[in-house]
Amino acid sequence: MVRKFTTLYRHIIDEERKIPEATGQLSDLLYDIALACKVISLEVNRAGLIDILGLTGEENVQGEAVKKLDDYSNEILMHMMKLGGHTCAVCSEEEENYIPMEEKYFHQEVLNKYILHFDPLDGSSNIDANISIGTIFSIYKRISKNGIATLEDCLQQGYRQVAAGYVVYGSSTIMVYTAGRGVHGFTLDPSVGEFLLSYENMKIPKKSSTYSINEGNYSKWSKGMQNYISYLKEKDKDSGRPYTARYVGSLVADFHRNLLYGGVFIYPEDDKNKNGKLRLMYEANPLSYIIEQAGGRSSNGKERILDIKPGSLHQRTPLFIGSEEDVLLAEKFLSEEVSKNGVDVKKQIEYKK
Ligand code: P6P
Predict the structure, then answer these.
(1) How is domain 210-348 classified at the CATH fold level?
(2) 273 lines ligand 1 (CB under 6 A)
(3) Pairing between β-strand 173-178 and β-strand 163-169 as defined by DSSP bridges
(4) Residue ranges per structural domain of the chain
(5) Half-sphere exposure of 153 toward its Cβ, with a 13 Å CA cutoff?
(6) Ligand 1: which residue has its CA nearest to atom 5?
(7) In this predicted structure, what is the pLDDT of residue 59?
(8) Taking 60 as the threshold, does the pLDDT of residue 57 lie above it?
(9) C-beta separation of 269 from 217 below 8 A
(10) Which end of the chain is less enclosed by CB atoms within 10 A, N or C?
(11) Tens digits of residue pLDDT in 85-135
(12) SS3 (DSSP) at 266
């Protein structure tokens, strides 16, 4: 039997062919991002060998000035976007402002109609310990008709994304993306330099028995948050408790595991960080688009992440994301009238999908 050998490019093109009005530009943009991430993967994996970790201004074995891996990743993605000509603005975790594409990079035959947000290398502080890290990206169509992109083009609500994805650099390099027609995962085969389809139409289990949270922040949480985590740790066979705790401390690694096996990842607000730690535009929104496409749920504990109206490029948000029933239960504990022995909620969370 011939084993199905579907490359990322083949899959993107096949998906594009199902959309009559598709021009192929989004496909090319996704492919450009994948190519950039292959280059980043090479460097991330080499870093473990030639020790260019986390240093700036040092010299590496070739005597070259070394950039921190996240600066390097940022530059690779920026450069690829200039070459590709599909974006009119790029917003990066590494850049304070949005970077409008200068018109000299506008290709006549291509309309530069997309906005790209990305975190070039999330969790890069973990690479020194050889812990998985990742690139996260989010794509919108521009609102302005033409010319130089505006800040309004870059501050759109998450439900307006046209595609989103991440690449996790771990024991293997895996790219997961959605363009609104399901979630699909690809594993990089270094021998051919291709991302090969390894997870088609990914779906997260509706309920899990795994939670991911940094419990070191327990004392800073609200009472509802403390009650929820305590509830998960109580012994109750019927409701699958106690849950298992799994926390890598690298968002993409924790998210990817939960997507595969089920789980709820939480980075809540606390008494120091009223909006939590994670960023809306290039962490919460793309992962929320993916999780909803995979049948999961994502909120800030009260409101659907994808409905949040952004006020600034780097704004933070509390994040509750993963298996639908687990996120729902966490939301109920955060609303009024919760008791430690269960959930006595007077009001249902209004949630439009
Ligand atoms: P904490 C990594 O620094 C990161 O931005 C995410 O990848 C990760 O989920 C989170 O921070 C970990 O934060 O406070 O638990 O170390």
Answers:
(1) D-Maltodextrin-Binding Protein; domain 2 (3.40.190)
(2) no
(3) antiparallel
(4) 8-199, 210-348
(5) 27
(6) 123
(7) 53
(8) no
(9) no
(10) N
(11) 889 999 999 999 999 987 776 665 556 789 999 999 998 778 778 899 999
(12) strand
